[in-house]
Amino acid sequence: MLAVAGSLHSQTVFSTGLVNPAKIIFGPSGTLLVSEIGPTPNSGRVSIVSPSGVRRTLIDGLPSGTAGRDPDGPTGIVLEGNTLYVAIGEGDELTTGATSGTMVPNPAGPSSPILNSILKITFSQSLELTTTAVTLKPTDHSILAEGDTLTLEDGAGGKATILVLSTFRHRPESPMIYRNSHPYALVKLTADAKQLYLANAGLNSIVQIDTQTGRARTVAKFPPQPNRGTTGPPVIDSVPDNLRVFGDRLLVNLLTGFP
Fold first, then answer.
1. What are the φ and ψ backbone dihedral angles of 187, each rounded to 5 degrees?
2. Phi, psi (5° rounding) for residue 116?
3. Ramachandran class of 128: left when φ > 0, alpha when ψ lies in -120 to 50, beta otherwise
4. What is the pLDDT of residue 96?
C-alpha cells in the first residue's frame, strides 16, 4: 500500500503484507480496512491497517478460488458500526469454456459453497480493539451455506457472528454455457440506511440488497455499447467495477472493451 504526498512522483510505502488486495475503505479511529483475495483457495481475508501502517488480519479463511483464471474472492466491503459486509466474488465456480469468451461450470467443483454472496459479519467490539483474527474453516463454509448463523471466537475474548446475507446466481445462456455473476463493489447510501448497493461486474448491473432480510433486486442494468475500435465484436460490455456515494446518488465506474 502506497501513501501519496503532494504528487504522484512522491510516494512512500505505507503498509506491507497485503495479499492480492481488492478494495479499501476507512475504518474506525483512523484505520483502513482492506479486502484481500489471497493466493490459494479459501485464503481470502480482511485486514485492518493502523494509522501508522501496521497491518493485522481481522478475519481469515474467506472464500476464494481461481479455476485457471485470475484469483477472485473477497471484494467490496462496507462497515456499519461493528458490522462488516463483505462481497464474495464468483471464485472458481466457473471456468473458461472451449469457445473463446464462454464460461462453463468448473468440472472440479467450487472451492467453497458460499462464493458469489454477501457475508454479514458482526463483531462483539469495535474493530480497532480486536487483537486476534477469527478464522473460517471449510466446515464453517458448509454451515453457512445451509443458512445457519455461525459465531466464532478469536481466542482473546472477542467474537464474530457470521451469516450469508444474500447469494447470486450465474445466468444460463445455453445448457452448459453461463453468463457469470460477479459481486464486486459494495457501498451504502447514508439516506438509505437499510440498503446496500452492489455492482455486479458479471451481469453488468447494480443490485439493491436489504441488510435485514437479504432480499436483492436489480435497480439498474448497463447495456452493451457500440465497439468503436477496429478489432473485436460489434458491441462491447459496460462493466460496473466500482461505486462511489455522491450525496444521495451513486457514481458508477464502467470498464469497456469486454469481451
1. -145, 170
2. 60, 50
3. alpha
4. 84
